[in-house]
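[step 3/7] fold_predict: job queued, chain A
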Amino acid sequence: MNMSLVPLDSDQQRLEEIRQAERAISRLIQAQHVNTNQGKLVSQAKDWGWQVVKGGGKHPVKAIRPGYSPVVICGHGSSRTLKRGTALGILQALAEPIRAELNRAAQTILEQITQQKLTHQEARIATLEAELMHFQAEAETGLALAAEVEARNGILNRQMTKLLHERLELDVTKQKLMAIIQERQQIEAKFALFIADFEQLEMILDRVTLFAEALPEAYQRQLLQILHPIKPVA
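[step 4/7] structure written:
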């Protein structure tokens, strides 16, 4: 086995472990947001490294973490199942730090892999250049090896051309990887905005529904019929 490949294999294994961890988080969120309550979310927040504090006011239970906005964990303990949209938004917010950490780790490993490949190729190019110079020096001293030198030079030149082409492809691949990471971050940001808008709409509709219940029955039915088509389904 070529020992120079061992670090690359190790990095690839760590990268796959990170991807598996990301998929596990996504599966956990999909499973938990369907039928969960405040108690389960508090437990999950602690598992992900958040500090859960209780206080007074409108939102008595919050998860806090240095460097991140507080996450309100609404509900009433284990007595009431939360709406799916609300639970999904809370879980996404709680998962943000660990996902960011995994993303940074993956990016670091990708950069290490790219740098190792570049270093390996640069060493091969330097070796080939040294061999080429050696054969050129022998030819200049008048050794009767002109034909062999020419053939050897041709082989070395082709090998160098191939290596330079591979290096160019590697640079292009690195740029594509950076673009994919940036695109993923943009998608996550847009999804977070969508969750916030969804929760805001739910809050407005709940308030209008409460208002409708205070109206006379005839007006109440009319208003609820208007609201029904746009009421989000949890």
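[step 5/7] annotate
The chain has a mean pLDDT of 82.
Residues 12-36+81-230 form one domain.
exit 0
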